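Form 7-S
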Amino acid sequence: GQGAVPVSVSLFDRRGLADAFAGHDAVVNLASALPSTTAFIRKSAWTECERVRSEGSATVVDAARDAGIQNMIQESVSMIYRDGGSNWIDEDHPVDHYPISRGNHAAEASARRFAAAGGNATILRFGVFYGPHAAHSEQILDMAKWHIGFMPGRSDTYMSSIHVVDAANAVVAALTAPGGTYNIVDNTPLTKRAYADACAAAVGRRLWVSGPGRLGLLLGGGAVLLGQVLAHVLPARAHLRIQLKRLEMQLGLHFVLDTVQRHLQGTQANGAPGAGHIRHKIDFQSGSHGAPRR
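Output:
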């Protein structure tokens, strides 16, 4: 009923993708393959995710060029920024490089290659997802039901997140934005302590214990450092107080992105973060949904 027609094609099939892209105005590449929460500590668990974001994104760009596509949106993550302390981080802040960020950097490089060939390329660096079907946030809520607060790293460091519905609305808005890199995060990032407390409050529990805390930065061995893994899922090692401004300024819009606490207030008995919440929207102020005016 939404006008979308599903097509089954491999992300690594350049000809098949080009055929599917033909006649369209834009390609939005949100493909990912994050490992399950029970497997992500193993370095080998990230192999497919890295392939999707490196080989897959490169193939998507090649196919888009073959099909004459002029506009490309590429998913990335805000967790690739370097530690910014308590300062606000914008899109010009230096990025970091660690083992499981290779795929993200490769995907962004593919988007820039699309732009260098004359296309309009937009990179969206999303915060940590939460909301219905965001597996990691649902698991954190389940932990809170057992009075366990999940805090990867120091409790006073910031993490920047985004509700899945707000993220989807930002993708739609980005279709009309000039090419470039944009942060897609809530307006008010929380410290990890505040995030854990919000999850506990959402399920009506008090936290008795929290972790892995600083210990998460010390575990290693044959696996990727847990701190590096959590830097991709829930950043452990760094302050990431990221701001959302550039996309709003480019489009002359105002995003209504509530904090984690408000979204979690809508949690239902099934524990899905944000379930039943109805405030996920973009307020165009001078216009209506889907028809922004500058």
